[in-house]
Amino acid sequence: MLIIRGVNVFPTQIEEALIVDPVLAPNYLIEVDRPDRLDTVRVKVEARTPLTTEERDRVERWAEQTIKARVGVTTTVEVMARGAIASSQGKVVRVIDQPTEGVALESALSSLVASGLPESSVSSWTAVQPRVTDDFGRDLDRYISYWEQTYRLLSALPAKSSRSDVERAAAQTLLTAGRESRERFSTPIPVKYMTASLRNAPVSSGPTGSWRPRLRLFLACAL
Predict the structure, then answer these.
(1) Does 111 lie in the same domain as 211?
(2) Nearest to residue 18, comparing CAs of 68, 67, 54?
(3) Average pLDDT by stretches of 10, the chain with 223 residues
(4) How far is CA 212 from its chain centroid?
(5) Do 173 and 200 sit in the same domain of this protein?
(6) Using CA atoms, how far apart are residues 56 and 84, in angstroms rounded to an integer?
(7) Same domain? 149 vs 84
(8) What is the pLDDT, as a whole number, of residue 92?
(9) Residue 4 near residue 74 (C-beta atoms within 8 A)
């Protein structure tokens, strides 16, 4: 999920808006930049068939208006030839986000505090955003601590059926952050290596004790 000028945006929302036009192929790239702390979004999308300059201009203007109407954000759309958007190592890249340092976290903090969550708890959560290092056991400790904080914030919101729009947006921010952190943690580490680690690696002396039982739980949830 992206937060664009306070609006929660999912890449699939933009995709659904684009593919309404049969001229456009479901291969796109969303580029987010934040010059002068202002979010700008460029959407590159492939055309199924060759287009004239006039046709391309018409489709681009239509796509910009459709995304604005459906998603609520202003974009610049660039229609490209089929095959122009390259994949990365066999994977299709959908989003390139180039945040100005601190802006993404500030946006998340504002969104969560607006829902009524304590600012101190939100600040603590944003301050412990984990990153993958070469110390697997300690990484797992840090990530699980982050997931536990995420769960506590989510639990502090009203029941799902009773949430306001602001509270629903806050819940979605937390859920998306949790999923993205899980992907960030698991992607660089092959499952084969993690499974072998369960049998062979020494027990970590990290702050939360043995990580192997916790890794089993993580694998059970992630796979």
Answers:
(1) yes
(2) 67
(3) 75 89 90 73 92 94 94 92 67 57 56 85 77 70 85 91 87 82 63 45 45 48 40
(4) 27
(5) yes
(6) 15
(7) no
(8) 52
(9) no
pLDDT for res 126: 73
Q: What is the pTM of this model?
A: 0.45
- Host domain of residue 20: 2-98
Q: How many domains does the chain have?
A: 2
Q: Are residues 94 and 109 in the same domain?
A: no
Helix, strand and coil in the chain, % to nearest 5: 55, 15, 30
Query: Which pLDDT score, from 0 to 100, does residue 130 have?
Result: 74
Residue 111, C-beta contacts closer than 8 angstroms, at least 6 positions apart: 3, 6, 8, 169, 170, 173
Q: What is the pLDDT of residue 199?
A: 47
- In terms of domains, do 62 and 24 share one? yes
Q: Which two tokens stand for residue 118?
A: 């304590």
Do 124 and 214 sit in the same domain of this protein?
yes
Whether residue 80 is found in the same domain as residue 136: no
